[in-house]
Amino acid sequence: MTFSTSGPLHPVILDDIRGAQKMLSGVARTTPMEGSRHLSQLVGAPVHLKCENLQRTGSFKLRGAYVRIAGLSPEERAAGVVAASAGNHAQGVALASSLLGVRSTVFMPMGAPLPKVAATREYGAEVKLHGQVIEETLAAAQEYAHDTGAVFIHPFDHPDIIAGQGTVGLEILEQCPEVRTIVIGVGGGGLVAGIAVAVKALRPDVKLVGVQAEGSAAYPPSLSAGHPVSIDAPTTMADGIKVGRPGDVPFKIIGDLVDEVRTVSEDALSSALLLCLERAKLVVEPAGASPVAALLSDPRSFKGPVVALLSGGNVDPLLMQRILRHGMAAAGRYLSLRVRLTDRPGALAALLGSLSVVDANVLDVSHVRTDPRLGLTEVEVELQLETKGPEHCEQVATALREAGYTVIN
Fold first, then answer.
1. With contact defined as beta carbons under 8 Å apart, do 18 and 40 qualify?
2. Following DSSP, what letter does each residue of 141-160 receive, concatenated?
3. Residue 91's closest CA among 135, 112, 121?
4. Helices 159-175 and 190-202: crossing angle, nearest 10°?
5. What is the pLDDT of residues 17-59, one digit of tens each?
6. pLDDT for 84-107, tens place per residue?
7. What backbone phi and psi angles, to 5 degrees, belong to 356?
8. For this structure, is 73 an active site residue?
9. Which of 94, 158, 306, 357 is most solvent-facing, going by the fewest CB within 10 Å?
10. Which residues pair with 338 in a beta bridge?
11. pTM, full prediction
12. Is there a catalytic annotation at residue 336?
């Protein structure tokens, strides 16, 4: 299979994706698909998880990067490639380049997680840290391409990238031929566009649902306007889908072939990540968990069997810790409250005894004695508790009030 490397960009068709699948044989893994009993019960139909978080480099990005770089001419390969990324695309380009014997340079933001920087270097790329936000990093990479002649490898806005990502769609149809709905996280749009081309060509009856984070949802307004629209300062914990403007190449494909694009909250993302870890024993980054977040947000609106694509699992351990705490709070598994006490010996012990009666696990205790709202003999105790869910949270607060404590939520 030969991909064009000059002239106008060609449209992506099923034959391109089938050719990409042959090219990726022995390079990208055919990732497993796991059933989820918990999600199936919520949805009322079988739900399967397509585990691209178990792909080489930890995400689907290797697929498109390899196909794009493999399609370069000998002269372009000799000039090397350059990319800009905070993580997954960086690692995909680095490994693909190493496998193909091409020199790669990857620009990453100054604040990129250290494990992702280290992994990108280990895959063989020269890493340059530049810029505080990805737009600055992107500009630096494009300037480098202009100055050196290196080929810029865009993360989503190129037909070869889309064709490579579309091989995930072929695998889904092979692994779950009875599928009725596929749910996919959406950033710039390369992944969902490729899957849409593959799936709609073979199974036009399958519904495709894209998912974006509420604070970084450029596709809904763009689809309404009929052209890509930029949003200012996208914000979300899901950096893999934190893109402020749809790609020009995937945009038309998505407009024509994707049935729906939904948005999910940060609470839903963190709850989904927690569910993947606890119930499926899968480490998934927030962007990869976005399809699960959509299922949790409105489970009965999906026609099954459903395949939810876990697109990546590269998450910084420190971020994972914060997200898990957020997810547990969103699920009612953490309770933060303040209790006003008389400041006397034994008062705190009595309070903790009351909490033990209702089986609340105390994680942290702090005292406030200098607040002007407090009386001379009063102290306020701030408690962080681990609980069993929303009903248990209410039981804990009620039990403390019945014991005579002033509880301030």
1. no
2. HHHHHHHH-PEE--SSSSHH
3. 121
4. 50
5. 999 999 999 999 999 999 999 999 999 999 999 999 999 999 9
6. 987 899 999 999 999 999 999 999
7. -65, -30
8. no
9. 357
10. 382, 408
11. 0.83
12. no
